[in-house]
Structure of 6-phosphogluconate dehydrogenase (Decarboxylating):
Amino acid sequence: MKIGMIGLGRMGRNMADRIKGAGHGVVGYDLSPESGRDVDSLEALVKALDAPRAIWVMVPAGKPIEETIDRLHDLLEPGDLVIDGGNTRFTQDQEHAKRLAERGIGLVDVGTSNGIWGKEKGYALMAGGSDEDYQRILPILEALKPEGENGLVHAGGIGAGHYVKMVHNGIEYGMMQALAEGYAIMQASPLVKNPDAVAASWREGSVIKSWLLDLMVKALQEDPGLEHIAGKADESGEAKWMVQDALELGVPVPVTTASLYARQDSQIDDPVTMKVVSALRAEFGGHPIAKE
């Protein structure tokens, strides 16, 4: 199978490489000439693919995805398919699908997780769209997912993929916040002589052993006490959307809400907890961190 890839940044480039490694063809486009792109325009990308085309889009939510959808609406043909693998809000997926359908173009939204580790270990993929469109891109999804039975799900209709990715990221917020708060209280206590060693000891035999704990220990080994990381962590938007939708549904989400507020507070204060959260975001997703 041959697809187009729009957006060759931190995740898009690695995803394109993993797809190629599975024997599929990829034509890559990015705004940056230094990205290693194969073509220098969206028009050239469309021309390089045989109809019916499938084009995976890995650009940020907001204006970048809106502009990209608008351009593809004009350039693509009936029967073509757009795959949005970014973090678009699920309500926007439904609007994009309606607009693309005017020209007979399909849409699949794919929540994508595993950041900078996906090229090696595979990506957790959560797809939303019709059964027909899901089956059409299944070879690409199979190439991207981790080995084994898990890591890929057809979550439902259009918007479902990004909806469950939103929930996934809200859970992620809470898990990181819990690790961060545990570390912070150990660091503040006069009874605990080496919080870094305690965290490392939990990696085996503990009920809280996890990949996030492993990444926290890795960050502590690279920067003991996280002394060179500022206690500030940005929010990516998904947790806020989750809290908003939870209010509409009447579902209490106190852990996600509290972790969201903690990140917002970190823009004013400089707590130890946000040093841990910031370090974890850098370890699993390659997100930039503020240095002290």
Observations:
- Residues 166-285 form a domain with the N-(1-d-carboxylethyl)-l-norvaline Dehydrogenase; domain 2 fold (CATH 1.10.1040.10).
